[in-house]
Specification:
homodimer; alpha+beta; Arc Repressor Mutant, subunit A; four-stranded antiparallel sheet; about 40% helix; DNA-binding
Chain lengths: ~250, ~250
DNA sequence: TCTTGTGGTTGACGTGGATCAACGGTCTGT
DNA sequence: ACAGACCGTTGATCCACGTCAACCACAAGA
């Protein structure tokens, strides 16, 4: 009954999508009653599988739906006319994609799968309709958008005011927290993105990212082997963030 | 009948706040019918005057309302424990403040008036209630939040991938567009913020901002005199943004 | 098994913007 | 109208990170 990438799954597969999903606490249904969650199921009409390196949507695509990641990892990026790319975020299970599209009715960035992934497709007009009826859904949706704004401000702080090693430390701590929230190991994980993509996100070149990784390893803060990372001294990493090693 | 800073105006002053306001097209009521806008007036319970350098809210303050700027300018910033400040935005007439507070029910940044200003206070619970009843309000509110997310991504691009002069050019072009949208002169305006604040926003030191201004002036792209700026060659400024002067 | 390509590491060197410092101009409040 | 603090400009120097380049590790496919 399962099928190829990006092809919708049949209705049968979807019965009670949200109500059966173990992501409840991270995703849209958070804070809603059981009966409300059951109504939410009408919302999630289809799922989509996206293969590694494929686009979920592209900048300029008409906006119709937002997406909740069920399985996998994505990056979002914006590209300047001259080809410069800026990764604006890495999204994992339970996180939302596509909110950028609401403002102009077209997506303003690209969303690309970092590994084979699966998303819930949430038709936007239906979401608005349903959130006029379900207070909890409305509120949770607003929270999700607001959280994205707060996250973005954190990235600005990172890009505008932090040094290379502080940025990388902040990045690793952030990943660790998000894994923890999902019940995964806090201090050992596989990166799904390349050094180049990390660099783009952090406003650094890949060589600088690589050197920062090596430095952290020399100092015993982490161990790295390609994409496999183990955080050995999380308190020390936290200290790096709030503690300008040099100057102000 | 007028009073001191931050003291609410009496109900009498407010009659038909939104419906009388000439900011309609930029603010929340955009796209709503006349009768709907009249209902919006219940929403804007009070206005608040904020004197230059005063806080509209601080990081950590409980979140109760969002604010629409009627008159004036604000900056928002986040501050690290060690004192480093990152300006996350400059907001002008018709723009919304406080959206960051929804996610955690507390504000996550500071909002500070750059000049004597006045805002409409929009109680957030009422806004949610009313936007469950008025489709156009709901949609416009979502657009405003989404627009903020898109803007933030633009700032990330700026901070992560652009050089000092590109950043400043982008900043000036952006201001120019926002003035234009409000019916002000596109190419001549007063900056409400200091070089230091511009630098914080752009991830640069004030000296670098000052030098970039001087360079633009030498090249005949602008004329600057303290806070007074005139854009003499907007196409050239645009070119700087998309045109890495050196390398990729 | 070998081959090819992509991704990661490390070193040597260059540079854009930060830092430090001095000074001049201009608002702000009294 | 004045004093003082704040703000902006400019020059000299420094350094964190970018650039260029060589090489290595690993994964995927033949």
């Amino acid at each position: 009954m399962h099928m190829k990438a990006t092809v919708p799954i049949t209705a049968a597969d979807l019965k009670s999508a949200c109500s059966q999903c173990n992501l409840l606490e991270l995703c849209l249904p958070f804070g809603m009653t059981e009966t409300e969650v059951n109504r939410l199921d009408e919302l999630v009409g289809t799922r989509r599988k996206i293969k590694r390196q494929q686009h979920l949507y592209r900048a300029g695509d008409p906006f119709e739906a937002i997406y909740a990641i069920r399985i996998g990892w994505f990056k979002t990026d914006v590209v300047l006319e001259d080809g410069r790319e800026q990764v604006t975020g890495f999204q994992m299970t339970g996180e939302m994609l596509g909110l950028d599209g609401i403002s102009t009715e077209a997506h303003s960035c690209n969303a690309i799968a970092l590994e084979d992934s699966e998303v819930c497709v949430i038709a936007y007009d239906k979401l608005e309709e349903l959130s006029r009826q379900i207070e909890g859904l409305q509120h949770q949706f607003h929270k999700v958008m607001s959280r994205e704004i707060v996250r973005d401000h954190g990235v600005m702080m990172l890009l505008g005011s932090m040094r290379a090693e502080e940025r990388l430390a902040a990045f690793l701590i952030n990943l660790s927290q998000r894994f923890t929230a999902r019940g995964f190991a806090a201090s050992e994980f596989h990166l799904r993105m390349t050094r180049d993509e990390i660099g783009s996100y952090l406003g650094l070149k890949l060589e600088t990212v690589s050197r920062a990784f090596s430095r952290f390893q020399e100092e015993g803060l982490i161990s790295v082997q390609q994409k496999h990372v183990r955080l050995l001294d999380i308190p020390a990493l936290r200290k790096i963030i709030q503690h300008p090693s040099v100057m102000r």
